[in-house]
Sequence to fold (712 residues):
Amino acid sequence: MTIPLPTAALTTALATVRGVCPHDCPDTCGLVTQVNAAGRAVSVKGDPDHPFTRGFLCTKVARYLDRVYHDGRLTTPLKRVGPKGRGDFAPISWGEAVATIAAKFTDIAASPDGPQAILPYSYAGTMGKLQYASLDRRFFHRLGASLLDRTICATAGAVGSDITLGTRAAIDPEAVAKSRYIVNWGSNTSVTNSHLWAVMHHARKAGAKIVTIDPHRSRTAAKSDWWIPVRPGTDGALALGVMHVLFRDGLQDDDYLERYCVGTAELRQRVLNDYAPHVVARITGLPVETVEQFAREYGNAQRLFGGPALIRLNYGMQRHGGGAMAVRTVCCLPAITGDWRHPGGGALLSTSKMYPFNERYLERPDLIRPGTRTVNMVKLAEALAGELPGPPVKALYVYNANPAAVNPDQSKVLTGLERDDLFTVVHDLFMTDTARYADIVLPATSQLEQFDIHASYGHLYVQVNPPAIAPLGESKPNTEVFRLLARAMGFEPQLFDTPDEELARQSMVGGGGRVYPSESAFDGVSFDRLMEGGPVRLNLPVDYAPFADGNFGTPSGQCELFSRRELDAGRDPLPHYVPPHEDPQTRPDLATLYPLQMVTPPVPSFLNSSFVNVEALRKAAGEPVVEMHADDAAARGIVAGQSVRVFNGRGRFRAKAVVGDSVRPGVVVSFGIWWNRYTEDGVNVNTTTSTAVTDQGGGGTFFDNLVEVAAL
Ligand SMILES: Nc1nc2c(c(=O)[nH]1)N[C@H]1C(S)=C(S)[C@@H](COP(=O)(O)OP(=O)(O)OC[C@H]3O[C@@H](n4cnc5c(=O)[nH]c(N)nc54)[C@H](O)[C@@H]3O)O[C@H]1N2
Ligand SMILES: Nc1nc2c(c(=O)[nH]1)N[C@H]1C(S)=C(S)[C@@H](COP(=O)(O)OP(=O)(O)OC[C@H]3O[C@@H](n4cnc5c(=O)[nH]c(N)nc54)[C@H](O)[C@@H]3O)O[C@H]1N2
Ligand SMILES: [Mo]
Fold:
């Protein structure tokens, strides 16, 4: 007979650690990890006491231990013993790895090309303030390496939003419960921001209407009350058409415009003259009635739906040639309607600027040598091919990123990584597509094994992540690796020897707020309280509505519908429509060869290229597919389920055709971002995407991509 153990005995054997999901996602969930007496994590759950996480996790992080204890985890440093890209490596000690890197960097720095021939390459594998950007930046600044402009995701929108508002469009995401007309504009909220979707759902139960503007019937569009299938890259035109109707029909909030905005008369004249609904309909591919109805509903949200309108504007509209202008334009709308006045009204792009962390302290930009060149990360293909000004790239140090899978013009990136005269270091948890090309691979800790402190770009809570378990094998956090490298290079110990906890404590001092009026957002948020675990809300009012009384971050302090700064820089002071780079309407020459506009959002069960190696999630994802309209398929003799080739002048990949009405004719969708080794021909969608950048901000244009599809 077996006697069940009393549950008390079982639970006392488990330690509980409250930490933070580190992944590049606005939700920044609170995690509760249980660790057994042997020091092994046995469960990871969403923090039930976190007001935004509310106890649930996405499908990926719900399986976090499959990632942490994956048998592909790197556990020792490795050196390459075969050709680049093949993946033949032999274990080495940390001592040898660090000495090899330091010797190589020292050589290059002393060569005529100098230290700028060394290029750091990182993005948001982890969002923690320390492991994302701290001692790594200090190290490369001190070394004199090339600077990296981290543009791949969010800079177009940041610049666009800044022109109009002087900061990122943001409201308290929890206040979305009070929104009554919710527009997911280029946002697959139910997939990419699932905890905000839960709040939207709550609002819907209270009467809100949910609209999604997306060329693809995304999961979010399918669950919305109204799907508006805009033609890719034309959101700016749609927003200008909405303004036309608002001003034409007198739906503007004159009092808000008068008090808090500059340039109303100029903008009004521009949209009344140039952006009538029939003009906008032709650009966007939408019926005139759709433009009219959307504008009227948006402008009458209070009357029709009993509350304010909220635009969740996300990345869909940014990844196009006119991405910055589109965001700048959409950011004008809530000022015209006065929706910023009301809790839950306005627009939400990112809450990141509400956290006054002291990034100057963490990253020490004062160490940058004057005149150091900056490489736009979107242009990695060109950088490795020696096509950018300045010294050739002779060494590449990759961490928190997987450029062989996520960067545009992939075939050219891979050719660059194959160069025998390139010295490549990759620090990661796994043997990624990029790591296969490395000379030295370094094993990284997972979030359960490292310390960090977190802001969020989708809620208002600060959180600390203490390690829950010991590092697996010989893996090390980013901060620790840069301490070792700095020591080997003989850099000043006082720049690198500060322990992680102390870095985190100091990062909360002296940063200063950047969203008005939140200079005091850290008041009362004590580091010691954070160390007790769990979320602590920024010192901001409940249902915070930052622009209810103006207080914009622009030079004038007003919402700048007309931008003096843009005029002074020689650009249009008013919003206008900027077409995509690869646009059938403006580039008929290109469209005869490649007539289909392709958008490539990430696969929902992956997080960019992270989690692709977790078998259960890869199984759920199926295989690379391309969704196309039945008319486009028929015209090419393609039937559902058939293997097809998607191609353009940059590259080609294979996918399975999904045929139907989930996209409008002329548009195809292929979900990225597979690891190349799991695709049939060793490349993913990014072999077709372009390194052309957005109108401003140097952002990626992943969704601005003309292709052709052919049956195989
Ligand atoms: N599950 C999951 N969640 C994620 C991520 C992930 O990989 N997986 N990635 C995270 C990261 S790094 C980011 S940046 C965010 C991205 O978050 P989102 O911006 O929500 O996600 P995307 O899927 O990139 O794009 C959103 C939608 O824009 C649509 N779109 C494409 N072109 C256009 C256009 O011209 N106009 C309009 N209106 N829509 C367009 C796409 O069809 C897509 O449905 O999500 C984060 N969350
Ligand atoms: N076609 C197409 N391409 C895209 C996009 C798209 O929508 N379509 N989206 C773009 C966007 S929005 C983004 S943000 C980029 C994302 O591009 P990346 O930031 O490169 O994102 P991931 O592919 O998730 O790769 C992150 C890597 O960091 C590693 N990592 C995680 N934590 C740590 C750590 O603590 N230390 C170290 N050293 N490594 C760590 C992970 O294991 C992973 O391999 O991709 C872009 N590429
Ligand atoms: Mo991103």
Remarks:
- Confidence is low (pLDDT under 50) at residues 1-9.
